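HUMAN: Now follow token order:
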Amino acid sequence: MPNRYAYLGPEGTFTEAALRALRPEAPEEARVPCEGIASVFDAVRSGAVDGGVVPLENSVEGGVTATIAELVNGPPLLITGETAVPVEFTLFAQDGTRLEDVKRVATHPHALAQCRGWLAQNLPNADAHTVSSTAAAARAVSEPGAPYDAAICAVIAGERYGLRPLASGIGDRSEAATRFIYLSRPGVPPEPTGADLTSVVAFIQDDHPGALIELLNQFAVRGVNLTRLESRPTGDGLGSYCFCIDAEGHVSDARVGEALMGIRRVCRDVRFLGSYPRNRRAPESDPPLRPRSATDADFAEAERWLARIRAGQVD
């Protein structure tokens, strides 16, 4: 059977756009919309699909709680890819609806948070309602006897459900973007590309002064840069936290491998989430590369040096 891929639905979400970017070869019939983030994880875990795409974080609103909860607490899956999608919002309604007719607006909570300024200025008397996705909002508005007058969603969703745009570019932040991850069942990580990220969840041993510093030092002393650090409750009680970490590099890199061994020694547990190609921006927007404190060859030479010392050989 051809490969099938799950994503946060319904059709027309930003997640579908991310899936198209990550799996451009997949025909429409291979894209499987799911009603919730947990359903995407379940579809991948059960083998009903070959992979899945879910949102991980937004540049304005931060981490997506449902995704992080599944990565931290659910049966393990691997992140094997990522992409970022610019988030541009448009107000859509049924044909014949005027802006002044809009009294009830539907959208996703993250979209609502990013459009509050525009709503306050242009629709101050409208009630805002949240639904499972921006595409679900568009679908609801398109139905006969719709409970909402308009939807805040992506252009792809408004057009898919036959709606008419009332206002475009209504986000309060013009540079907003959402990061999406591609999920696979556990296995060997993708080969290193030289521009990779490694993601883990670290559970500290106990709450004591310097516990977080001990964890971060394992990366710092090896010259591994962290691109994301987020604390999350473990669910074991108030005050019990784990840390979601994205680090530059691949698990096969000496520096990253040693850092992971280091945090495994000082933490109660570490969940490896994957090493995968990093989403690349336009070359002209990339920051200059930071100087490395050591290369993999330096690590290998240090290992050989230590072996000689242990064998009684003095340089």
Notes: The first helix runs from residue 14 to 22. The CA atoms of residues 7 and 16 lie 6 Å apart.
